[in-house]
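User: Sequence in, structure out. Go.
Assistant: Echoing your sequence, followed by the structure tokens.
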Amino acid sequence: VTDDDLELVVESDDPDGEELTFSYTWYVDGVPADLSDEVLAADETARDEVWSVEVVATDPSGAEATAWDTVTILNSAPSLQAVVLSPQPILGSDDLNCVPVGFTDPDDDPPEYAYQWNISGGGTDCSCHAETPEPVLSNSFYSRGYLVSCEITPMDDELAGPTVYSVEVEVANSAPDAPTVFIEPGAPSAGDELRAVALATDGDGDLLTLEYLWSVDGAGYGSDQVVPGQDVESGQTWTVEAWASDDELSGASGSASVTVQ
């Protein structure tokens, strides 16, 4: 194969018991290669080449005998240094990339890869290709607390090299998204009750708790969802800020404002 040196092993016998000397001539695909050493270095050869060597044995009187041998250089399998998952940390809202690192092929063949995803958690335990053996795994296959890993087999057009495995990574908790916030009614009059409405989502599908913080004309007011009508006066500007929390993290806030007629 292309990453092997070719070393000659010469077996000889002289009827007179005289010491023989040897000369070597190498040919590649029938053409002289201008090489005459006993060892042909691997970096001189390439996949599918046919190498021949002519060996001439000479005794002290000048008598000669010639022998030939021929080999075909076979394909070498590629290899891979490592497999990395990206991004890290992995959140339930992220699609996950399986990234090959350090592809090498002694024949300089272009890289090809076979991907395998492994997922466990939430009652699921699968070795799956995510429907197609692609380097990107959709976040629809996992959520917070799942364990995910990836394996890649490097290939050329004929051979597969050793499979390389990523580390197994736990999917981390995603903070809730900033909510969309509005106030009902949208055009209040003096004495109207004001109610904050916040619509929040979470990439992990966690149960969310909503919190509110009201201000009136820039001054802090309170943290209930509803402002009673008795506190709502004409000309005031009311602002509410809201954010969502799961059992671990709080997300960014959203806000809305109204001016009382």
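User: And one key feature?
Assistant: The mean pLDDT is 90.
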